[in-house]
Write a structure and sequence with these properties.
427 residues, UDP-n-acetylglucosamine1-carboxyvinyl-transferase, Chain, 2 domains
Length: 427
């Protein structure tokens, strides 16, 4: 077991370089199953969610070769099975994309349920609505999703609510279907556009990604391609919030400022000074943090994946802030640990009311999920004293080399092995 030890109270200063986007990589890698050639994918983040997807492709029969630490060459033509067992899918949410990819390639798929953060109920009814609209039958047996289709025919599909995963899965299932598929009320996240660009680089015909309406004209074949993944919006946002929360001055490099507009806007409202460059963003804060209200929304709104980090910053802001979580129904579990560190936060359904305090104090805490874990790191950075964070594996799922990256900008942070304490001898 490992835990993180952070000695708080030091402002962050310096430069940090952002890695490739986790939520792009976990969609683009399964999409290689649709290619009749070899795909070389660059700017792959070295994080456990992505490694899990790559390992799954390999175990399914793909040829996988790392050309360097962040570039992988994949030839999925060797995959002969349409079955993805729970031992492979339980590792991350992105494994749900094997449904759309396998259905598209084999016109059948038998996929175990995905893993991923426990954020409340995470149904897949919109995914299966799309598969059915394309002509597939959907059955669930022993927890496995069983998809079959004699053929896949384009259709118009209205998304009852915006869903990143369902939008991605329907894109994958329809890209080689006969005719035109229209996804209405589609998700517009940067990783949706990234996947569409990747598929189009292989010869797909996808238009409108990044808008509410995506049109997909099915094509016969998809070739191999060389493609570089965009930088990670949420990793960048996490370092931006950490810089502002600690009262530091950090240049966050290898970013797409447009993807960060809602985060920059909220940080400025809270008193940070933001400077945008072509592929970098500078965040500093010298004055007092000010309260501000936040409502998470699908892109281009404030990202739900930045909610825990922002709540942590607001816990030491001047005044009372309100944060409303509109995307997931249970994404405030981590607040129990912020409270243990002295935060004054009341949660009422989808709303957290945060009464700013002068400072947080150290305490033993846990990472309850990926972004909550990032929030605990920020809390440790701003708290007085030494904070210990357990269940570090959650953070390693989505933040490449975060100990080194935070250390390089002045954090007193380290990872230590913890020996399992033997069960007390109670006679
Ligand atoms: C993706 O999850 C991301 N995961 C999440 O990031 C992110 O929080 C989320 O999108 C929203 O941006 C990956 O990309 C691997 P949704 P996803 O489908 O696709 C409901 C992180 O920290 N819904 O957009 O599962 C759902 O319950 C992770 O990197 C249905 O009701 O999110 C939720 O309330 C955490 N039926 C809402 O829609 C469905 O069929 C949005 O979910 C699908 C979703």
């Amino acid at each position: 077991m490992e835990k993180i030890i952070i000695k708080g109270g030091r402002p962050l200063f310096g430069e940090v370089t952002i890695s490739g986007a986790k939520n792009s990589a976990v969609a683009i890698l399964p999409a290689t199953i649709l290619s009749d050639g070899v795909c070389v994918i660059e700017n792959i983040p070295n994080i456990s969610d992505v490694t899990a997807i790559i390992r799954t492709l390999y175990e399914l029969g793909a040829t996988v070769k790392y050309l360097n630490k962040t570039t992988v060459e994949i030839d999925s033509r060797g995959i002969r099975t349409h079955i993805v067992p729970y031992s492979m899918t339980k590792l991350c949410r992105g494994s749900s994309y094997f449904m759309g990819a396998m259905l598209s390639r084999f016109h059948k798929a038998l996929i175990a349920p995905p893993g991923g953060c426990d954020l409340g109920v995470r149904p897949i009814d919109l995914h299966t609505k799309g598969f059915k609209a394309l002509g597939a039958t959907v059955n669930t047996e022993n927890g496995m999703v069983d998809l079959k289709a004699d053929k896949l025919v384009g259709s118009s599909i209205y998304m009852d609510n915006v869903s990143v995963g369902a939008t991605i899965n329907i894109m994958l299932a329809s890209v080689k279907a006969e005719g035109l598929t229209i996804i209405e009320n589609a998700a517009k996240e940067p990783h949706i556009v990234d996947l569409a660009n990747f598929l189009n680089s292989m010869g797909a015909d996808i238009r409108g990604a990044g808008t509410d309406v995506i049109k997909i004209h099915g094509v016969e074949k998809l070739a191999g391609t060389n493609y570089s993944i965009i930088s990670d919006q949420i990793e960048a946002g996490t370092y931006m919030v950490a810089a502002a929360a600690t009262g530091g001055d950090v240049l966050v490099k290898n970013v797409i400022p447009k993807h960060l507009e809602s985060i920059s806007a909220k940080l400025e409202e809270a008193g940070a000074i933001i400077e945008e460059f072509d592929d970098a963003i500078r965040v500093r804060r010298t004055g007092v943090l000010q309260k501000c209200d936040v409502k998470t929304m699908p892109h281009p709104g404030f990202p739900t994946d930045m909610q825990p980090q922002m709540v942590t910053l607001l816990s030491i802001a001047n005044g009372t802030s309100m944060v409303t979580e509109t995307v997931f129904d249970n994404r405030f579990k981590y607040i129990e640990y912020l409270t243990r560190m002295g935060a004054h936060i009341k949660v009422d359904g989808k709303v957290a009311v945060i009464e700013g305090v002068d400072h947080l104090t150290c305490a033993p805490v846990k990472a309850v999920d990926l972004r909550a874990g990032a929030a605990m790191v920020i809390a440790g950075l701003i708290a007085h004293g030494v904070t210990e964070i357990e269940d570090v594996q959650h953070i390693e799922r989505g933040y490449e080399n975060f100990i080194e990256k935070f250390s390089c900008i002045g954090a007193d942070i380290r990872l230590v092995e913890t020996t399992r304490t033997a069960q007390p001898d109670v006679g």
